[in-house]
Each structure stands twice: as structure tokens, then as C-alpha cells.
Amino acid sequence: MRKMIAYCGLDCEKCDAYLATLRDDQALREKTAKAWSELNHAPILPEHINCQGCRAEGIKTVFCDSLCVIRQCALKQGVETCGDCPDMEQCQTVGTVLANNPEALRTLKG
After folding, report:
1. For position 10, what pLDDT does the model report?
2. Do 81 and 5 meet the contact criterion of CB atoms below 8 Å apart?
3. Mind listing the pLDDT tens digit for each residue in 28-68?
4. Where does 1-110 have alpha helices with state H?
5. Which phi and psi (to 5°) does residue 5 adopt?
6. 1 near 92, Cβ under 8 Å?
7. Domain spans, the chain
8. How would you class 12 by CB atoms within 10 Å of its CB: exposed for 0-12, middle for 13-18, buried for 19 or more?
9. What is the pTM for the complete model shown?
10. What are φ and ψ of residue 20, in 5° steps?
11. Over residues 100-104, mean pLDDT
């Protein structure tokens, strides 16, 4: 599986935080911070928008690094992605992402 696929099956290469980091794009950081602040009803600043990928070594957004329960579960279980977990089909932790993103589910099922 490609390294830029998150534990939940989302493609990090399509994530604005990853793209802003890769391109060192301050305008995209500002746009993403504003959108994510509104979406999450939380103060997210442009300097928070830095990520080199969920499963890659390096910097991650605060959410991805320490608040994402999916990532924390996968790390605890020792799986490469949720697709390697025998409980994925019934898992409520990753279930919301997969219900709203059929592409992520297809990616995890490989």
C-alpha cells in the first residue's frame, strides 16, 4: 500500500494540510485553517497546517498526531492500515469515515 494512504484509507496526497506543507504554500495554509476552523468549530491557525502524512515520519497536524482516534487505534493494534484489522467491517471508530468516503473503503479493501 502507498505510504501516503492514512490509516483510515484517506489519501494524504489529496489533503490540503499535506499539500500546503509539501509546497510551503502559506495561502493554502490560511485557506485550510479558515475552513477547518469553521468545520470543527475550533480555533485552527495557519501555523497548525503542517503535515507530512498520517503514516509517514515527520510533522503532523495536532489532530492527526494526537487527537485522531483512528490513528491511535491503528498504532495500538500495530496494523499498517485499518484494512489490516479483522474488525474493520464492524468498527465504529473508522466507520464514519468509510460511510462518508467509499473511495477510502475501496482503498482499504485493496
Report:
1. 95
2. yes
3. 999 999 999 998 899 999 999 999 999 999 999 988 998 89
4. 16-23, 26-40, 62, 69-77, 92-100, 102-109
5. -95, 125
6. no
7. 12-109
8. buried
9. 0.87
10. -65, -40
11. 93
